[in-house]
């Protein structure tokens, strides 16, 4: 059976994945990059260095489980979004290794964006067909997208709105680090929120579908400074994000007429946000599988399979 390799080297995760002709996930491995305790991220040069260290070990592990002679094609993310001037050096690490593997294995290689990979990771397992709205919630994006068929493996992705300042993942991580959690803080903050006992309110801020998280961040910081319990602050943060998402999706549905929505990205895996949106948003609301919401190479592999299986 033919296999398709996906590679993604994002800001904080080195990812390899393999899918087969039936869109079954055969292999999915990720390694989080190391961020010093108390820090809120990595410089691109440090992330690039860690990707280069991770990849040989991860590929060696892959070879121990997969017959690489069955790999019929490779797909790699080379930029954050499929728009002009979208660039981050970290994606060059994956691109470099993909080019070497292409020549060694003598197989075709296609390139895509990190965001396209997230969309494919959500839509393929759900058998979701365009057109639909997608909301990408992560540390680097709070993007409302209109997704249509684009021909070939490409999707026609139109950016409708994006955050005016901080992204929702930055909001989560900055409060998480302030509370003494490890960066990225999403999972730990989610666990804290589930133990909350007191209802605190952080108002959401959305104008014409454009969210802002700088004001909510300031209010959350004040809650911490006045001694509110970590668990209660954590829940207040996710309640604010949930309300923000509700407003963004309402704007998107009203302005496009589409009622089918896919939520993707690491923040979309949060348990409170999922529950809140399912209860509050009318329409067909879909979530990427929790394991496929954070950064991964599965969606990239799905893209490679869709295009390359037609040409091999």
TrEMBL record:
SUPFAM superfamilies found in the cross-reference section: Actin-like ATPase domain (SSF53067)
Gene Ontology terms for molecular function: metal ion binding; tRNA N(6)-L-threonylcarbamoyladenine synthase activity
EC numbers on record: 2.3.1.234
Keyword check for tRNA processing: yes
Signal peptide stretch: none
Chain ranges of the Gcp-like domain: 47-301
Any single GO BP term: tRNA processing
Name by which UniProt lists this protein: N(6)-L-threonylcarbamoyladenine synthase
Native organism: Anaerobranca californiensis DSM 14826
